[in-house]
Design the sequence.
């Protein structure tokens, strides 16, 4: 069993935990304190509101421990607002939040809440018919050379990976399609083997 945390400051925390435990090879831990990070093999940064999440990360002293978690090679999966937290560059902002992944993102690129939609994506190495729910979703507008694009929607980048960092613009936890989470669990298992 691998232990995967879900940063439980805001967002669809329980939905992610349920998805992570669906295949029976990972235990999901709801993370509310910095010290709860130390025992984990991987971490999910859920959707929510990225500016609010950054304020809570700062208030509870998570920023440096999260950056160290990534530097230690432990996988992190950011969905929607979690994607924004991971990005080095955010359109219209001076600096990123965690500054970990070599990409530029645009907040709310797909419109407001009422313009939410579902789509089927061809996600490289994951599924050719992946169910995706977009809610006030950000967009990856640019990626560095070391970033692998995993999925597009209408020619725009909506999922990517850079080493142990995985991101998507959408909410896979709000569907019955577990394959994106299974892909992340496999990343965590492989990373744990490599670290040991």
Sequence:
């Amino acid at each position: 069993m691998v232990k995967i945390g879900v940063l439980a400051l805001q967002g669809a925390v329980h939905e992610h935990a349920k998805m992570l435990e669906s295949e029976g090879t990972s235990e999901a831990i709801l993370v509310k304190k910095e010290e709860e990070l130390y025992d984990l093999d991987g971490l999910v940064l859920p959707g929510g509101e990225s500016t609010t999440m950054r304020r809570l990360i700062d208030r509870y002293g998570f920023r440096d421990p999260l950056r160290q978690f990534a530097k230690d090679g432990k996988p992190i999966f950011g969905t929607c607002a979690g994607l924004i937290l991971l990005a080095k560059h955010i359109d219209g902002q001076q600096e990123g939040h965690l500054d970990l992944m070599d990409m530029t993102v645009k907040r709310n690129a797909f419109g407001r809440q009422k313009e939410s939609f579902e789509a089927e994506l061809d996600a490289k190495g994951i599924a050719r018919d992946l169910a995706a729910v977009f809610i006030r979703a950000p967009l990856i507008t640019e990626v560095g050379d070391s970033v692998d694009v995993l999925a597009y929607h209408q020619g725009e980048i909506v999922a990517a990976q850079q080493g142990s960092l995985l991101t998507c613009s959408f909410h896979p936890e709000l569907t019955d399609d577990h394959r994106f989470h299974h892909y992340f669990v496999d990343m965590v298992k492989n990373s744990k083997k490599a670290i040991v």
Notes: The chain is about 25% helix and 35% strand.
